[in-house]
Amino acid sequence: MDFFTQGISTLATIVMAIGAGFAGWGIINLMDGYGNDNPGAKSQGVKQAMAGGGIIFVGLKLIPLLANLFQ
Hints:
Blueprint: H1 2-36, H2 39-62
Helix pairs in contact: 1-2
């Protein structure tokens, strides 16, 4: 059972890292949009940052609930 718990913990960490990468990329695009006065890049940056936040939320709250399925 410890194998599943450790695997779920690792999966949550990986998903949160991917979400943080998307959020960081979105913030970079947002700042690039402000620097170049490009509304398209600003919009894309906000969308990517919010999507990254959603992925972080999934990794933080929903994936640990998988542990309950195996108990």
